[in-house]
Every structure is written in structure tokens, then in C-alpha cells.
Amino acid sequence: MKISNADRARILVHALPYIQQYNGKIVVVKYGGNAMINDDLKDSVMRDIVLMSLVGIKVVLVHGGGPEITNLLQKIGKKTEFVDGLRVTDEETAQVVQMILAGKINKNLVNLIQARGGKAIGLSGADGHMILAEKKDERLGYVGDITQVNTQIILDVLEKGYIPVISTVGCDKQGNVYNINADTASAKIAGELQAESLISMTDISGILKDKDDKDTLISSVNISEAKKLIEEGIVAGGMIPKVECCVNAINWGVKKVFIIDGTIPHAILMETLTDEGIGTMFTKGE
Q1: Which residue of 49, 147, 202, 207 has the fewest C-beta atoms within 10 A of its own C-beta?
Q2: Which residues lie closer than 8 Å to 112 by C-beta, 6 or more apart?
């Protein structure tokens, strides 16, 4: 579709109030799922993040990478087992998780951002003891519960004008490596940073009254309503822990949390810099 110069100007003017609102503020983006697998979508996400950074928004990118971890485990003949939706992580699997998340995926994302004109530095939760963790459940092995987030290294990177790209690998003071759920990590990091917003990229539109009808999207949720949505079955299955992370992030000090469909090109910009947005927004409310 061809856009005239006049249309481009109107789009920029329309975005101005949102750019002013977010200028100098921290926005945490949780990135994973299908938007990470598809190369075109990945490019769209990185362009959005670079644009946000260039207009003065302090973007922190937190990423997972479950499918790539599963693929490598299959290649080396290691069976993947899940308990309550979490990957059972023995010591060998923990090393694979660290290699894929903190190595391959993290550095690829950094390179993509820089190829699009941004400035990025890759970090893992083990760097500077950023994410300290302990075992969540003996049945899960090295799956971590976060005990502390040290944000100074993130703030230092932001202050120098770089986009921190953080892989969700944690550690303890003895040097053990832990696999950390990306939704949990992004919520905790956003809370500790007192972020203006947390954007959680998923492969669904947001919270739907009818899961089979995209037109039933609930655009705004007060966190006091979240428990009722779970009780009524509107939020069910794998969405329950995601919504619980959204509620926790708000309680930890994040002003707004968005669940958006990361499979839509430029979803981040549509949610952040337009009136309507495209997903579900969580706020504390009255």
C-alpha cells in the first residue's frame, strides 16, 4: 500500500503525544514465541525497538527461546519433559539453556538491532548477578525462582544509550545456572525498574471473552478483576500464569502492562503509539 507524504506526516503528528509520554521512560518488552521464530516478524520487532529507542524511550528487551532449546535437546538425543508447564532442567539441560539463550539467541538479537541502526548490548541474568535465583522445585531441577534482581547493570547500559538485551538465565552465589521463566523474569525486572510499561508479546490477541472470537477482545483490565476472569474460565490454561505475571508486575510498581499478539507486524508500535492499541492493558485502577 502506497502512503503519501501527507499521510506520513499525519501519522507522525498523531504519535507525538505518545512519544512525549514515554520519552525518557523505561519500557520492558518480553519477547518470545512465534514472533521469535519467523524472520520477517523478528525484523519487524527489532525495527520497532530501534525506533522507540531513537525517539527517547528506554527499551529493555527480555527474551526467552523455548523452541530453540527443545530443538537442540532433540538433536543431542535428550528428551524434554515438562511439569506444570515448566521444563525439567537437569545440569546438562541447564548448560544447553545457557548456551542457546545467553549465546546464540541473545547475540543474534543484538546483531539484528545493530543492523537496523540501533545500539544494543547483550546480557544474561548471570552477568553481574543480575538475576539471583534458587531452586523452585526439586522435581524441576535447575528451574529457578527469582530471589533478587540487581538492576544497576541495566541502568548503566541504558544511561550509555544502549538497549539491554537480556536472556532469562539466572544464577546463585555458588555459580549454579538456572532456567528462569521469561514471563516471570520480565515482570520482576520491570517491577524493579519501576517501568512505565511492560509489553508481553504472545501469539494471541490478548484476553478474549470467547477464545474463538477475536472480536471479543477485552481491551482493558483492572488487576482487581483478574481473579474473577480466572474463576469464570475466561482466562484459562497457559494464560493463567501470564495474567498472574501481569498482576504481579503492576503490584511491583509497573504502571501499565500489555498482552499483545506478537505475530502482527509492528504490534509494539501499534500498542504504544496509538489511541486504540491492539491488545489487553492491565492497570491498577481505583
Answers
A1: 147
A2: 42, 43, 46
210: cell is 470467547
Sorted by where each begins, the domain ranges of the chain are 25-283
Nearest-5° angle of CA 266, CA 105, CA 52? 30
The Cα 207–Cα 267 span in angstroms is: 16
Per-residue CA distances from 91 to 115, 166, 179, 234 (Å):
35, 22, 10, 38
**27 burial via Cβ count (<10 Å: 0-12, 13-18, 19+):** buried
- Can you name the CATH fold of 25-283? Carbamate kinase (3.40.1160)
Tens place of pLDDT per residue across the chain (286 aa): 566 788 778 878 888 888 888 999 999 999 987 667 788 888 999 999 999 999 999 999 999 888 888 888 889 888 888 887 788 888 898 999 999 999 999 999 999 999 999 999 999 999 999 999 999 988 899 999 999 999 999 999 999 999 999 999 999 989 899 999 999 999 999 999 999 999 999 888 888 887 777 788 888 889 888 888 888 888 877 788 888 999 999 999 999 999 998 888 888 998 888 877 788 999 986 5
Q: Cell 540501533 identifies what position?
A: 118
Question: d(Cα 230, Cα 243) in Å, to the nearest integer?
Answer: 9
Strand stretches in the chain, DSSP E:
26-31, 58-63, 82-83, 86-87, 120-124, 131-135, 144-149, 163-167, 169-171, 177-179, 197-202, 207-208, 217-218, 220-222, 256-261, 280-283
pTM of the model: 0.92
